[in-house]
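Worked problem 6 (solution included).
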Amino acid sequence: MEIRAVLLPRDSKERILEMAEGSTGMELLQKLNLPYDVHILARDDIPIPLDEKLVDGEKIKIISVVSGG
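Solution. The predicted structure is:
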């Protein structure tokens, strides 16, 4: 299945990734070599859990979390 991913805020270019059917958000982050503990996934601007199954053709926003003092 194809997933369209956008990395925010650093890169607004859409990437099309080939994933296995039933892949989860965690597997998407692993494919992109991104740490799970500093990223939030969103579908239609609504956050989704990392164990959520992805759907063929959907667009997922991957948002980097920044914190500091």
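Discussion: Residues 10 and 64 are 8 Å apart (CA to CA).
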